[in-house]
Each structure stands twice: as structure tokens, then as C-alpha cells.
Design goal:
about 5% strand, alpha/beta, disordered N terminus, five-stranded parallel sheet, elongated, Rossmann fold, binds zinc ion
Amino acid sequence: MDVSLSGASLPWQQPQLDRLLASWNSGRLPHAWLFVGSAGSGKLAFIRRFGNLLLCRQPHAGQPCGTCQDCRLLLAGTHPDWLLLQPEGKQLKIDQIREAIDFAQNTAQRAGVKLIVLQPAEALNANAANALLKMLEEPPPSTYFFLLGEQPGLLLPTLRSRCQRLVFATPAAATALEWLQTAGLSGSDAALCLTLARGAPLQALALARQGAAAGFQRLLQTLQALLEGRSTVVQAARHCEDLGIAAAIDYQLLGLSALLLNLQAAQPLALSELQPLQQQLQPRSGLGLLRRLHTLQQHLQAARRLALATNNANPLLVLEALFADWCQLASAAASP
Ligand SMILES: [Zn+2]
């Protein structure tokens, strides 16, 4: 079951839920909200949960029943009083805001309230943002807007100022790990995927379900073979091609930054999986090696930006070039 769709509550979001419910129960729920938090911190899961509580016909002990028709419609994504707007392509466009205006002007069909969710709000283009602002200035009755964003600084200031802000911090690692294990991950997969997701639990769960732990291990083994001279860059690239270019680069970046922290700042290795690589590099580490690690980090970041910006990069060629950089590390390690 997809936790982000199920409306299940996330343990670290109780303070936010309490705040919205108190506001709702007092009859003074502000009509526009800006939820701020990193990707994967659970903002969308939260608003689904809150929306479910408002729309459920027979909530019990603070829980939606999960079985009434409203709950079922919401779970299916077809509730007539719930509108989720996500980018078509890369932007939230004016036509989508027009859809929201039509939606807001209709009478609520079932529960008496309507919810409009925009995710991510930063994707609003200028026309769409202005149209939304007009609507927020004269809010339609019984309609609540939830703008979900990672970088509120990118939003129109006038739009921002119309919204009540609610922050969704990334939970403490221990809380996130416990939740991931409750969701069925092993301890080591949970730790690895949480690191890959930079601490965002829902992102970590999504990565785990995409096989990120096994993918990361495969990438490390490939690098190991490459640096030991058991593999060529061409073979290495072929071995990692099906990970997807973005993931293959992300895994390298993750491994590299953990190695850098260890070699440069003498911090313990964040991921035990990196020990073989670290042992290969550390005995001969020197300024030349650190410089090359930093250069490789820049190459990886540039390749990542390019891979995200275009869909037509040849993954094999990109990976071959990056693996060739790793090979140079080995020669740097050999002659500090
Ligand atoms: Zn229900």
C-alpha cells in the first residue's frame, strides 16, 4: 500500500495536524495555507490525511473511517470536492488555475468543503500565480487552498503573504528509521535509503521500493572492480546503465561526499558499504587525491544537472566519462 496515498498518519506530523484541527474545530481555519518542507518530508501525505478527516462522513476517534463513500472516493483520487493540481510538464499553468476557479465556484458536492492542493507551488508560472492570487484575494466560500513547496522564496511575495505558513521539518533520523522499518524495510536498507533521500522519509521509502539499496551496492561493486583494474570503463558503464542515469550519478555523489567527509575531515564513514573503496584510497591519500575527488564531485554535479535538464544525453557515454574520472583517482592514489 502506498503510504502517501493511504491517508495513514505520519508520526512526526502530529503537531501540524493538531494545529489544523484546532483551527478547524474553532471554525476559523484560514482559507489559504503554504506548507513548506523538503521533498519527501510528507506534505502531500499530510494534506491527504487532513482532507480525508474533513471529508469523511463518519470519522472516529480522530481517524477517517476508510470505508465510507467519501473515503473511498478520496483514496481513488476521484472525490468531487478534492482537487490536486500538479505540473503538466514542468509548470502549473493558467488552464489549471482556470480549472481550480471553476471548481471553487461550484457548490461543494458532498461534505460542504472543497480542498484545492497545488504541488509544488513553485511550479506556478507567472500567469497562473497571478490568477491564483486574484482568487485568494476574494476567496470563494468553503474552499481551502494548500500550496505545497520546498522553496517558498520562489513564490510571488504577494501570494506568499496571503497564506498561513506551516513548516514541515524533516524528522529526526531515529524517528524516520523506525517508521521506515514499520513500513517493511530492513534496518540497513532503511539507513541507506534515508541517507540517499537526505533524511526525507517518504522519499526514502520511494527509493527503497525502486530498489535503491541494491542499485547503490551494484554501483559500489562496479567502482571497486574498476579501481582494482578488474573492469574497464566501458564494462562498468554497461553494468550500471539500467540504474538510470540520474540514480547512477546520485549514488556516485553520495558515495563521494561520504568519502570526502572521511578523508578530509576525518569523520567516521557514514555508510559502512563504502569501507572497501575507502580502504583502497585512504592509505595513499594526499593533496593530489583530494583535489581529484573535488574535481570529480564537480563533474558529477554538472552531469547531474545536464541529465535533469535534457532527456537526450547518452547514458552510456556520460557514465563512461565519469568512470574514467574515477580511474584517474586510482592513479592519483598510487602517486600522491
Ligand atoms: Zn470515511
